[in-house]
C-alpha cells in the first residue's frame, strides 16, 4: 500500500488516552478530564453541564456535573459559527464548576488561532505556567493530537460531533459567502458546477469551501473525488480519528447523541438538557435539489466518507451501550425535560431573530448572510432560576469572555484597554457592545499571529539563503 504524503496526514502519535467506558469512568476515583474538539462539522461548541450541588446554589458561571469523585469536566464555549461548526455543537453548552479550568485561547481570542494547526502555546497560561492544570479544552481549533496532549492530562476523554456534509455545505455557503471561493458565484450550484475553477486552496479562508471536516481534524482537505488514492486516504483518516477520539457523535441525531454521551460519561439526564444555540432563521435556509446534494458529496468526497463511517459506528455504539428501547425512552424523557425548561426559562418559549432580542448580552454574533437567532429570558422568573437559565442561552463570545475574565482578571482588563485602541470606527449595526469588541479583537489577533508566521517564514528563508551562500563559498575555496 502507498503511504500518503507526509504533509497530508496529521500527527499520528499513539494516543495515551484511556477508554472511559471500558475502564469504568463511573467508579474511577481519580479525576476525569474531558476534551471536546468541536470541529467543523461541526461542531463550534457549547454545552457542558457540570454537576452543581443538589441544593442548586448557583454562582455567576455555569458548571458541569459528574458522578466521579472530582468533577473535572468540559463544556464548550466555542464554535460560534453555526454553519461550519454547527448549531448542535453550540447547544452542547451548560454549566461549569468554578473549580474547573478552561484551556482558553491566548490574548482573549475566541478560537485557538484557527485555521493554523493547534500549538500548545496558543493556550493562555500554558507557557507562563500560571495555570497548574487544565480540565477542559473546547474552543475551535485545527486538531493536532501531540500538541493537545501537551496541554491536557493523559486520561482526557476526547469526543466530537459531526454534521452531514450536505447540510454543512449549504450553511457554509450562506455564512461564508464573502470568501474568495464563493464570492463570484451567485448560488451553491453555480459554485459546484465550476468548483475547481473557483477554488484556490492557497487563498486565505478558502479551506471553508472544501472538505472542511477533514481539515478541522488536521488532514489535507484538497482531495478530489477522482483522486487515485481517495479510499486509502479516507481509511487512514478514519483510523486516525478512531485512535484519537473515544466518541464521535452525530449532529442530525442530537438528542440521541446526548443520551449516548450521558451513558459514556455516567451523567444524569439533567446533565445533557440544553437549548439549541447558533440556530439560523428559516428565512436564510435554502432547500437543496437532490442533484445538488450529490454534487456536494462528490466535491467533499473525503468528508462524505468520514461522515458515513461514523454515522454507522454511532448506531453500533448506541446498540451496545444503551439499546434501542432504552434510547427511545430516554430521548422522550430528555425532550420532555427540554420542553419544561423552555417553558420556564424562555419568553414565548423559543428562539427569535436578533432584532427581537432585548438583552444585548444575549445577542449572538452575526456574520455573513445568515441570521443567527437567540433567546429572550422569561421576565417572570426568580433570580436563582434566571441565573440558571441565562447560562443555557448565553452565546459563545460572551460566555468565553466571562470565563476568561474569571480565570485571568488582570489580563482581561489589559485586553479591554487594547480593544478600545483597535476597535474599528464603523461596525455593523448588530455588532453592539461586546460583539463589536470581540470582532475587533479577533481581527487584531489574527493579524498578529499571521505577522508572526510571516516573520518565521522570512527567517527560515534568510537562513536557507545564508547556508546556500556559505556552501558556494566553501566549494569555491576548495577549487
UniProtKB/TrEMBL annotation:
UniProt-listed Pfam families: Gal-3-0_sulfotr (PF06990)
Task: Identify one Gene Ontology CC term for this UniProt entry.
Answer: Golgi membrane
Q: Name one GO molecular function term.
A: galactosylceramide sulfotransferase activity
Q: Does Metal-binding show up as a keyword for this record?
A: no
Q: How does it sit in the membrane?
A: Single-pass type II membrane protein
Annotated membrane-spanning segments are: 32-49
Superkingdom classification of source:
Eukaryota
Predominant subcellular localization, coarse grouping: Golgi
Q: Where in the cell is it found?
A: Golgi apparatus membrane
Could you mention a single GO BP entry for this protein?
glycolipid biosynthetic process
Q: Give me the stretches of Basic and acidic residues compositional bias.
A: 469-479
Gene3D superfamilies per the UniProt record, alphabetical: P-loop containing nucleotide triphosphate hydrolases
Q: Which InterPro entries does this chain map to?
A: Gal-3-0_sulfotransfrase, P-loop_NTPase
Q: List every stretch annotated Disordered.
A: 459-479
Q: Which UniProt keywords apply?
A: Glycoprotein, Golgi apparatus, Membrane, Signal-anchor, Transferase, Transmembrane, Transmembrane helix
Q: Which family does it belong to?
A: Belongs to the galactose-3-O-sulfotransferase family.
Q: What is this protein called?
A: Galactose-3-O-sulfotransferase 2
From which organism does this entry originate?
A: Perca fluviatilis (European perch)
Q: Give the source lineage, highest ranks first.
A: Eukaryota, Metazoa, Chordata, Craniata, Vertebrata
